[in-house]
Amino acid sequence: DIQMTQSPSSLSASVGDRVTITCRASQSISTYLNWYQQRPGKAPKLLIDAASKLQSGVPSRFSGSGSGTDFTLAISSLQAEDFATYYCQQSYGTPLTFGGGTKVEI
Amino acid sequence: QVQLQESGPGLVKPSQTLSLTCTVSDGSINRGNYYWSWIRQPAGKGLEWIGRIYTSGNTNYNPSLKSRVTISVDTSRSQFSLKLNSVSAADTAVYYCASGHGYVNFDYWGQGTLVTVSS
């Protein structure tokens, strides 16, 4: 199985801050990497696929980068609605696996 | 936009079979190149992929659950289903269904349904 490791597991930030979350794969996965946002009590929402492709309707303050084993999700100016947990997920091979999550809180 | 809705018992006894159904809106289940997945999330923990099915009937399962899982599809009802047998308390989680295509594995999700395993 491909292990996905996210860091940090949680972070505290303020509205307007720039936030970066990293995700590392246990082997090279090219750009087969997706990012999700999950608000409390809600289903995850796809933000970015193929490491950097923003989904329709997702604010441009979100961006993704990376390839191979190291990936980053950045939020350029944190908004109140961005306080949530973020997960990376590899789509390179089965079993499909997720990172452990990064909780972004105030 | 695809809409998905999970349904099924919220309480299952240990050693019994957990059965859930996901209803897909507007006939989207017949979309070419789509597949349909189950994912679960124990309270306060991360996400675990259970498996997926294509409308052809081909399936992929997580090896960690493969011996206990069956996913099936009924395109005439626009539904796909999950059966997980021999459940224990460790199977207590919110269960989500989701759609995917290509390498975009989970583009739309159901709202999730909590299943508790307890006597």
Features:
heterodimer; A: 106 residues; 48% strand; B: 119 residues; mainly beta; seven-stranded mixed β-sheet; 11 strands
Please give a structural write-up.
- The complex is a heterodimer of chains A (106) and B (119).
- With 106 residues, chain A is mainly beta.
- Chain A is globular and about 35 Å long.
- The model of chain A has no long low-confidence stretch (mean pLDDT 97).
- Chain B has 119 residues and is mainly beta.
- The N and C termini of chain B lie far apart (39 Å).
- The model of chain B has no long low-confidence stretch (mean pLDDT 95).
- Classes of the chains: A mainly beta (106), B mainly beta (119).
- Chains A and B meet through strand 5 and strand 10 of A and strand 10 of B.
**Shape summary of chain A:** globular
SS-derived structural category of chain A: mainly beta
Mean pLDDT of chain A: 97
Number of helices of chain A: 0
Helix content of chain A: under 10%
Biggest interface pair, counts: A-B, 23 and 20 residues
Q: Tell me about the biggest sheet of chain B?
A: 7 strands, mixed
Rg of chain B, alpha carbons = 13 Å
- The helix/strand order of chain A is EEEEEEEEEEE
How much is the average pLDDT of chain B? 95
N- to C-terminal distance of chain B: 39 Å
In total, the number of strands of chain A is: 11
Secondary-structure topology with pairs:
The complex is a heterodimer of chains A (106) and B (119).
Chain A: E1 4-7, E2 10-12, E3 19-25, E4 33-38, E5 45-49, E6 53-54, E7 62-67, E8 70-75, E9 85-90, E10 97-98, E11 102-105
Parallel strand pairs in A: 2-11
Antiparallel strand pairs in A: 1-3, 3-8, 4-5, 4-9, 5-6, 7-8, 9-10, 9-11
Chain B: E1 4-7, E2 11-12, E3 18-24, E4 34-41, E5 48-54, E6 59-61, E7 69-74, E8 79-84, E9 93-101, E10 104-109, E11 113-117
Parallel strand pairs in B: 2-11
Antiparallel strand pairs in B: 1-3, 3-8, 4-5, 4-9, 5-6, 7-8, 9-10, 9-11
